[in-house]
Amino acid sequence: MIALLLALGSSLAYGCADFLGGLGSRKAHVLRTVLIAAPASLAVELLLWPVLGATFSPGAVGWGAASGVASAAAFALLYRTLAIGPMNVLSPVTALVSAALPVGVGLLQGEQLSTAGIVGLPLALLAVVLVSAGPGTGAARPSRAALLLAFGAGAAIALQLVCLHQAPTDSGVAPLIVGRAVSSAVTLAAAGLLRRRLGSERPAYAMSAGAGVLDSVANLLFLLAARSGDLTVVAVITALYPASTVLLARAVLGERIHRGQLAGLGVAALAVSLLALA
To answer: What is the pTM of this model?
Structure first.
């Protein structure tokens, strides 16, 4: 139950971070937003170091660095995927892959599910697809290249989560610090190479920093959840983050929640209840 609650908190934080990051990216190039978000996220993790501790063992550094590379790859592939479109088809593909791959890894590592879990897990995967899909899903067919990018983005997100899960349980926040430092370095390098394309618009500093802080909180909660529960359950609950993004868009921007997303929220609630029983 503790792992489930931590995973729900991680999902909520990821969704809020995406919402703020998306709003910030409307005002300036997305890399400018990330250049504010990444240091803010790293600062939070450094502040947590004295509180939660950090042991920089070879395993913690190695898996943390791998998660950072995967995080940077996920960022590049995801935004390239959504730029090609159609978003209402590719976004569910990315979300489903990011949830399904860690589930597969957990099952291969010997994790077992009760009857409630066997029913709740596919329902949660279905909820991920429904909630992240936009209206008119299926109206436009994505190209093969776009589908490959969507699978790649989902796989990179999944790899980041799996790498964090594989880090030693006694390493504290060391994997998060290393991962964020690596992903920040990759982002800075990309910004340097693309500096002529970034434009002159100033980023939304408060929203960008807020997105970074929330992303750091989400990573921490996922790490704690994965250390106290099964990856199969924690990963799929965390992947429900589009639900909080949808609800925030409704509350703040007045965006309409269409029937498919509403059904997805209901399925998500049922799946979480079943997984809690598991």
So the answer is: 0.84
